[in-house]
Amino acid sequence: MACARSRRPRDLVTCRCCGGSPRGLSRAGGAARCRLRHPADHPPPGAAARAGRAPERPWSRAYGWPGRRPLRTHKPAPAGQGEKVWTVGRDTIVVAASAGGVEALRTLVGSLPADLPATVLVVLHLPPQGGGVLAGILDRAGPLKAVPAEDMQELRRGRVYVARPDHHLLVHEGKVRLSRGPRHNGHRPAADPLFMSAALDAGERVAAVVLSGMLDDGVRGCVAVDRRGGAVAVQDPGEAAFPGMPEAAVAAVPNAPSLPVRELADWLVRQSRTPVITEARMDDTEMMREVGRFLSEEPALAEPGGTLSGLGCPECGGPMYEQRDEGLARLVCRVGHAWSDESLVGAQSDAVERALWIAIQRLDERVRILGRMARSAEERGGKHSHGFIRKEAARTREAVETIRMVQARISGGDDSLLLS
Description:
single chain; elongated; Rossmann fold; alpha/beta; about 35% helix; 15 strands; seven-stranded parallel sheet
C-alpha cells in the first residue's frame, strides 16, 4: 500500500507509542513515523519505567494525547522555584508552650502513638536554672522516647527532643542545634527561633503547635511556617490555662485550627501520615540571616535594618530598630535581642519595677543620712541647719511613699500611673 502524499510504500503496522493506525504510518525517508511523528524505534509506554527510570511520556493526556496540541496544565514556576513533588507527610513537628504548658505537653506527647512517622521538638519557657526534668516527664507520659536535646544530634522519627534551659533549640540540615544566642521576647529558649529554623529546613513538612502561654512568643514563627507551606494549629484558648499565646497565633494565622489537646494529637498524626506536596521556594534572606545569627559561632554586632525607633533594648540598653513583616511589627537591637510590642511592654514593666526599687533604696539611704546630719547639727547647736535638714528628710520620706505606691500598682499590672 502506498502513501497518498509521498507515493512510497508504507507498512501495515501500528505505532508502539500512541497506537496510531496503519494509515498514520509511513516510511518517508526510510524512517517510520506516525501522525504524531514518533520514530519507529521510540519505546512504548512504560518501557522506561520498567527499566528503573522515570519515562518521558509525550503521549500522556497532559500533553493532549492522542494527536492533539499539547495542553498547558500549570503555569511556569517562578524564578527560584521548582516543580511540585509529592513527598512524605509532615515529619517535623515543633511545639511551643509557656505558663500552664507542662500539663498540656504531657497530654499531647502522651497521646501520640509509638509508630509516629515524625520527629517532635519541644520548647517550654524555662528559667536559666530550670533543670532538665521536662524530658523525664514527657518520657514517662507515653510511648515516645523523650530526651534532652544535644547539639548536632541527627533527627530521628518517633523521638521527642526537649529544649535545654538557657539554650535556643533549632533545626538545621536535619540535625538538632543548640544556641545561646540573644533572647527572643525575653526568653531563651524561645518558640520563634525553633519555628523559623524548622520552616527554613523542612518547609511544607513542618507542623507547628502552640500551647498554653502568656503574651505572644511564637507568632512570628507560626507566620514563617505558614508562609513556607507548613501547617499550624493551636490549643483551644478556652481549654488553655493561659490563652495569650494561642490567641496571638490564631490572630496571625487565621486558618490555624483551635483544638483541645487530645484532638491536637490526632491532628498531628493525620498531618504526619498524609503526603504533602513540596516545592523549591524563594529564599527568605532576612529569615536566613536571623536564623544564621543563632548558628554562628562568633556572633557580632550588626545593623538589623529597619527604622530607628528611639527606644532602648531592655536587655542591653542599645538602640532598637523597628521592622515590619506581613503586618507584624517587632523591635531588634544590634545585639540581636528581638521584641514584639507585647513582650516589650512586659520587659519594660520589669525594668521600671527594678528601677523603682533602686530609687526606693537610694531615697531610704538619703533619709538615714539626713537624719544623721540633723542629729549632728542639733548637737552643735545649729538650730537653723537642724530645721532645714529635718524638712528635707520629710520631703524625701514622702517621695519614698509615692514611689512605693507606683511600684505596687505596676506590680499589680496597673500601668495607668506611667501613662498619665
